Amino acid sequence: MSNETRILIIGLIASTLRMATPLIFASLGGVFSEKSGVVNIALEGIMTAGAFFAVLGSHLTGNAWMGILFGIAGGMIFAAIHAFLSIHLQAEQVVSGVGINVFAAAFVGFMLYKVFGNPSQSEAVASIPYPTEFFAKIPVIGAVLKDLNWFVWLAFIMVIVSSYIFNKTPLGLRIKAVGEHPKAADTLGISVYGIRYFSVLMSGVLGGLGGATLSIGILNSFRENMVSGRGFIALAAMIFGNWKPKNAMIACLLFGFAEALQLAAQGFAFKLPQEFYAAFPYLLTMLVLVGVVGKTQAPAADGVPYKKGQR
What we know:
Helix content is about 70%, strand content about 0%. It is mostly helical. It is found in: Cell membrane.
C-alpha cells in the first residue's frame, strides 16, 4: 500500500467518525422521543439551535465548555416547545416539528445579525481543545485517534448509556411502556405526560449536542444552513436502526461515511462530477428509507397524542 493510499484511508476513517458524530447524537435524541410516543421531526431545528447557542455561549464567555452548556440549553428550549405543543396541547406532531424547524432557522438568522452583525455567519470562537499530540503517539490507531475530537468519544459513550437505559433500567421500561401502551402504563401509575416530557427534553439535550458538535467541535463558528438536513438524516438512521441506539449508530456511521467520501473525493484517481458526491449522503438516505419501509416497526403509540382519562 502506497503512503498516499494509507493517508487517504486513515483520513477517510477519521472523517467518517467525525461526520457521524452529530448524527449519532441526534438519532439517539430521536430514539428517546419516539420510544415514548412523540414523533420528533423537529430534530433539524433543535440541532440548528444547539449549533448557534454553542457558538453564542463560547462567544459570550470565551469558554468553549460553556458553549456546550449553551448548546444543550438551546436544544432543550426548542424541544420543550415541541413537547408542550405535542403533549399538552395535543397538536399534530409532524406539523409542530416542521413549524419548529422553520422557526429555528429564522430565529437563528435574526440572532446572528443582532449578535454578530452578519445574518449568514458568526465570527470565530473558542473551540474544544483536543490532545492531538498525545493520541498521535499511540501505536497503530493513533493516526486515526489524533484527528478526532471529544464529541466523537462522548457520542459512543452515549450510545452505550442509552442502550443500558432502555434495556436495563426501570426508566427505560417506563419509556417503552408509554410508547407502546400509554393507557396501560397510566393504569399502572406511570406518568405518561411526565415520561414523554422527559424523553422529548432528552432529544433536546442530545440534538443540542449534535449541533454543538458541528459548530464548536468540527468547526469554530456558526454558518447559515450548516446543519443542512442532518436532522432528517438522523431520523432516517433512527428508522433504519429500528428505534434501537446501537443499530441507529451503525446507520449513522454509514451516512457519515457517505459524507466523508464526498470530502475525500478530490483525492480519488477516478473523477466524477462534484455534484454527485455532494448529493450522495442524501441519495443514500432515500435509498435506505426505500429499503427499510415496511421492515421496521415503530412504537405502537408513536405519534398518537394521549389524553388522560380517555377511553
